[in-house]
Design goal:
The protein is of the alpha+beta class and 642 residues long. It contains 20 helices and 22 strands.
């Protein structure tokens, strides 16, 4: 009898990953991805450890240097990682850098609060670095340890580190070079690092952070010190916007959890509410933001009825009404935080919701009782938002009528057979030609194809009635099945989404990029949860196909790949340049862009909500001078399609 695949699954199939091998095998589990986002996360892991020293009261300066050789150095003036002999028989420092879940974060006497909850930050960075060197200043001496891809290369003397010099003071200095075997790119993105470090300075008013980029000529130096803390952070978020109220700031304690918040209303149609726990930005929010939003809505509705803004017959303002035009930063310090995932994007502690709710309920009432003019201005925003919402709902009721709209007969959407949303995906394809090829190439069971004609409406510049009157946008709203943002008079429900993946499939040229940006702007403003919950992707079709005189053809996805092929390939070959998806036949489109086993997709994520909103408004809005200046400042970053 022939042995089946299931019968080959035996005890020998079970693999035990030793030491840091698990990190190198599955890096995405620890840093989110191996893209530039994950690369920069290495810096944040080390910086967060230094910030924890600051929170413990032993560090007031952190220096970050992007070195010419592509490495990064992070130095602080904290206590320095312990170098004495650990119970395992080697220096405690080596245990920290070579063992997952090892560190002072598990000892409440060492750190009362910390962002490095899992105790894996230093060891993960070590595992994913081609080389790493750590120097510690303690007791007037400098101790050093060195590693290559997580493996120690420094010899120990009876388990202790060698002394390489004398020093005054204490502190830790770590230099690491990201491993090109792990990361798609190994050049840190300075703009993102600068934003994160400045953000950290806002959250820690007594901390100074310096960033030096040695890769620039001359080197660029920035110093971040923000004694006003969250108030300064909020002012920066609202820079250039018309303020409706003063900045409201409060701080308090509840059950050992410190809660700090700053909020302000501006003359905008959307909200920005950012959450931080132990200095870590929680991109997906969590329990602390839930506690704030719920209590703030309840308090504002109570005030609205108390001063007569809402009458007995009126329904309460909803949360979206209350937060319309609100910018808020909520920061908590928690002694035992629980996050969803190592990258700490969402806080899971229910006691955090209770603590934030209690402090917000007490402090916001205390503030508004003493500042009735600010209260009336705040409620005025809610009243205006509710009025707009109700008016827009009438528009949407007239324009969006799913029951009378047939997808499969409208001549556009070619739906998939399956109704299992978890496995279904929809491709938004520009052009009838590419759409026709995609319909023939797809897996009809799970893949739906929605062709669109040209460039959709720029929703950043258009009124809601014009947006919803656009045929392409209405088709997408109906196809997805989850509605759109309640900010625009509708009830968005992610659980009704018909497709797990929404994939933008546009040409790899300037027009294709513009179409992708228009679609992403629509998703971001009308269905932001599609992005924040990881449902939006951009297909990465190849630019070239090379066919050697001998051997099989190969698809190349960018000019760098073509340059590498020319350097390494011996002999002649023919080169085909794809100017658009429409030039591919069904078989080629399946091989390169539709086949889940071979295609390349880029997932769209939001790392910094405030920056994302600002960039969207700047690049897609009506104001031309700021957009022109942005393009001028970033001209060197452009990748030209020649």
């Amino acid at each position: 009898m022939q042995e089946t695949k299931d019968q080959k699954y035996t005890g020998s199939s079970i693999r035990v990953l030793e030491g840091l091998e698990a990190v190198r095998t599955r890096p995405g589990m620890y840093i989110g991805s191996t893209s530039t986002r994950g690369l920069n996360h290495l810096i944040y892991e080390i910086v967060d450890n230094s910030v924890d020293e600051h929170l413990a009261g032993f560090c007031d300066t952190i220096e970050v240097t992007l070195e010419k050789d592509g490495s990064c150095t992070v130095a602080d003036n904290g206590r320095g990682i312990p170098v004495d002999l650990h119970e395992t028989g080697v220096s405690a420092l080596r245990v920290v850098f070579t063992t997952l879940h090892a560190g002072g974060k598990f000892d409440n006497n060492a750190y009362k609060t910390s962002g490095g909850l899992h105790g894996v930050g230093s060891s993960v960075v070590n595992a994913l670095s081609e080389r790493l060197t750590v120097q510690v200043k303690r007791g007037g001496r400098i101790y050093e340890d060195r590693y290559e891809r997580g493996v120690p290369v420094q010899e120990l003397n009876e388990g202790l580190l060698p002394v390489v010099g004398r020093a005054s003071g204490t502190g830790t200095r770590i230099n690491f070079l990201p491993d090109p075997e792990i990361f798609e790119k190994t050049r840190f993105r300075e703009e993102d690092v600068r934003s994160r470090l400045h953000e950290t300075a806002y959250l820690n008013p007594n901390l100074t952070i310096r960033l030096t980029d040695m890769r620039q000529d001359p080197p660029r130096e920035d110093e971040f010190h923000e004694p006003e803390g969250l108030v300064a952070f909020l002012k920066n978020l609202n820079k250039g916007k018309e303020a409706v109220t003063d900045v409201i700031y409060f701080k308090g304690m509840s059950d050992g959890i410190e809660v700090e918040a700053a909020l302000q209303y501006v003359n905008e149609l959307h909200e920005i509410v950012l959450g931080f726990c132990n200095n870590i930005y929680n991109a997906e929010g969590g329990s602390h933001l839930t506690g704030f939003k719920t209590t703030f809505t309840q308090v504002m509705n109570t005030y609205a009825r108390g001063i007569g803004v809402l009458k007995d017959k009126d329904e309460n303002f909803n949360g979206s009404d209350i937060r319309n035009g609100l910018t808020a930063v909520i920061s908590i310090k928690h002694p035992d935080p629980r996050f969803e995932g190592q990258t700490k994007t969402k806080l899971d502690n229910q006691d955090a919701a209770k603590a934030v709710s209690q402090v917000t309920g007490e402090e916001i009432v205390r503030y508004y009782d003493r500042n009735l003019d600010v209260l009336k201005a705040s409620l005025g925003r809610a009243e205006q938002a509710a009025r707009i919402r109700k008016a827009q709902k009438k528009v949407t009721d007239n324009l969006i009528k799913p029951a009378k709209f047939s997808f499969d007969s409208n001549g556009k959407l070619a739906n998939c057979t399956s109704r299992d949303a978890e496995h279904c995906e929809i491709f938004i394809v520009e052009g009838d030609s590419a759409g026709g090829s995609a319909k023939m190439a797809r897996d009809r069971m799970y893949q739906a194809i929605l062709p669109i004609r040209g460039k959709i409406l720029n929703v950043e510049k258009a009124s809601i009635d014009k947006v919803l009157a656009n045929a392409e946008i209405r088709t997408m709203i109906n196809a997805f099945g989850c509605g759109f943002s309640e900010d625009y008079g509708n009830d968005f429900d992610i659980t009704r989404l018909r497709y797990n993946k929404i994939i933008i499939m546009a040409d790899a040229d300037v027009d294709g990029s513009h179409i992708s940006n228009l679609l992403l702007t629509f998703f971001y403003r009308f269905m932001p949860d599609l992005i924040s919950e990881g449902h939006v992707y951009v297909a990465m079709p190849p630019l070239y196909k090379v066919v050697p005189k001998r051997g099989e053809g190969e698809y190349l996805y960018d000019d760098a790949a073509l340059a590498r092929y020319r350097r390494t390939h011996k002999g002649g070959f023919t080169l085909q340049r794809y100017k658009g998806l429409g030039e591919m036949d069904a078989e080629q489109l399946w091989e390169t862009t539709l086949d889940p086993a071979r295609r390349r997709l880029r997932q769209v994520l939001i790392e910094d909500a405030s920056t994302a909103s600002m960039i969207t408004e700047l690049l897609m809005g009506s104001e031309v001078p700021p957009r022109r200046q942005f393009i001028h400042d970033h001209a060197d970053d452009a990748q030209l399609d020649i």
